[in-house]
TrEMBL record:
One GO cellular component term: extracellular space
GO BP annotations, alphabetical order: immune response
InterPro entries: Ig-like_dom, Ig-like_dom_sf, Ig-like_fold, Ig_C1-set, MHC_class-I_related, MHC_I-like_Ag-recog, MHC_I-like_Ag-recog_sf, MHC_I/II-like_Ag-recog
Gene encoding the protein: LOC102079388
Cleavable signal peptide: 1-19
Entry keyword set: Glycoprotein, Signal
Residues covered by the Ig-like domain: 204-290
PANTHER family noted in UniProt: MHC CLASS I ANTIGEN TRANSCRIPT VARIANT 1-RELATED, MHC CLASS I-RELATED
Organism: Oreochromis niloticus
Matching Gene3D superfamilies: Immunoglobulins (2.60.40.10), MHC class I-like antigen recognition-like (3.30.500.10)
Name assigned to this protein: Ig-like domain-containing protein
Amino acid sequence: MRIICFYLCFFFFYSTSSAVKHSLQYLVTASSGVPNIPEFMGAVVLDNIHMVYCDSINKILEPRQNWVKEMFENDTELLEIYTRKCTVILPQNLGNRISSLKEQFQSEGVHILQMREGCEWDEKTGEVTGFLQYGYNGEDFVEFDLKTLTWIALKPEAAITKQRWDADSVRTKLNEDFLTNIYPQWMKMFLSYGKRSLQRTVLPSVSLLQKTPSSPIICHATGFYPDRAVMFWKKDGEEIHEGVDPGEILPNNDGSFQVNVDLNVSSVKPKDWRRYDCVFQFSDGEHVITKLDKTVIRTNCGKKILCNDGVTNSRCGEPQPCPPGHEA
């Protein structure tokens, strides 16, 4: 799996997981030659919830959830560990590594180094899976193999880095300890503190949208939590795939999620519309069913824009300008 998309995308490493599998991710970006952004940014994400953020400009640890703030208030030693890791250790380490890579490739200009590390824990089986990956300038670069305790070069240019890091036995031991022991312990502690928030279930608000009469019907669900959910269309009670375009689950700014699923109705007769249902469903079976009903579809089509001199201008889909000389 590619771990690089853009220098800010580490904030959106969201993925759907099973009800008993938990993940703890440390997502870090170091940059050189990129204007107007911090040279270092770091985030801690638990079960797709943004817990902590820090960067090289503010140089403070910012809890992003109330329960995380409470946890650090109760455990000042942990707060000190995370503050030092996020404001001193990681910025120095990644800064040195990006300088080393620039020297190795003898290149100047813009450079981005990203790190993703952490672990997954299956609450049902007890299995722990650690991961540690680096990307450089938009491409996967190296990843740590816990089975062999060696680095894997993901592109030919990473072979020198692999050899150098493989030779660092102290760092190898630390990586193994964090990925298999320390991170799982921290994850379970975080889950204990955030249990009430992380285990809550919030059903979405569901709307039917259509840009123009010939456009697909968009079934839009937003405000739901957690992200372990699916949304699909049914006809006569059976799930359908033809004419259906499902979207990805995306995060909202408040920690909830949103998702769309489109239905092409160009060949559906008006009398058959009510045979279709949009279904939002959590992994535990809790669901929301929305009947395809023309009267509840929200659209711009047919709305009026008031221009000056009492002139109105219809719009359908994208807003249309007022006639020349009649702008409001």
